[in-house]
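Memo to structure team: turn this sequence into structure tokens by end of day. - J.P.
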Amino acid sequence: MKDKINVLIFPAEGQNAYELHDALSTCVNIHLMGATSVARHGEFIFENYIKDLPFISASDFLEKFNKVVTDNHIDVIFPTHDSVVQYLINNATHICAKIIGGSKFTSDVCRSKILTYDTFQKYGILPKRFCDVAEIEYPAFSKPDEGQGAVDAKIITCKEEALNIDFTSHLVTEYLPGKEFTVDCFTDKEGKLLYVSPRSRQRTMAGISVRGESEEVTPEIEHIAEVINARLSFLGIWYFQIKQDSDGEFKLMEISTRCAGSMCQTRAKGINLPLLSVYTAMGYDISASDNGYHVVMDRALIGRYKLNINYNYVYIDFDDTITTREKINLNTIRFLYQCRNQGKKVILITRHEEDLNTTLGKYAISKSLFYKIIHIHSFETPKSQSILYKDAIFIDNAYKDREDVKNTCHIPVFDVDQVEFLLDWRI
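Reply from structure team:
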């Protein structure tokens, strides 16, 4: 096995790109990079991040993309957008790395809802299709031939709404009123379907599941997965979406050859499909299994921040700052170790009333975490008197101390709730 496998995520934006980052960034034998044409949230989480690549429609895209691939000795590429998957697969012979996806036919089918329907029409796993207004049974469902994230997908309730549909660029089917599942799958280098993991889509945001539960692999779901895998050629991760019709039977809605935005729910079961995909692309033999427990996933937006301050020293209080309600404040302790990793010096400045060594031992906090410890024994002595470094910040839960330091030392000050704004998520 190669010591370090160089993996590129492109574009390194979107929820599925962030999931790939989370799945691969801490793997000891993976060197991870992100690249994109438009920089967004990726620059907050990728330590190795390349922006301003041309769009795939640009005439010089392939040349500049291949330069990134060759300059960084990329072994494996994860495309994260359906159009990018199709483009890279179609140009695979000109790209100097292995691409997680599938064959050209597979990428073409997965990019087109109409071609998907034509490919699987005879297998009895699709909803009823309507090809003109006269055929429609209401309510119906319309979605663009090429699209993702439920963009421009809508329920058609009457003939007046149907008259505006272009049936050459939209797929119109019966409306499916039942439960909706995403099914994460994995296919090995020999084309064998090794893993199937359904999960419900109970609440969505911009087409991405933000609440769901792991579901049982029923014979019906297994059959649909086997039919798809037999007809198409995948390499590594892929997924499909199904929904129940009025009779409770699951019908195929779409297929994709990329990582899904909520594949983290399957990873929570103890199986890292992106990592297994890397190994498969490298030609390794692998097996796939999870821990078998039930997972409920719910998530909301998370904020990550960049502050235009530079500092080499951190002065920080102890009581109710490093600790909270007789426990360690996890955000704060994460920040302290972040400072250690970045070579910033942490100075503990406290009026702790008990024996400090005993208390540090109680919380299993090593004194070596701190560059210096300043123990002030008088509540009359301002902390500002002990602050000597000007390229510093000050963290304390006490407003009086923060105001003293801010007005006397003229350095940035932070309350405990603001520590999250200092966290650096790049890895």
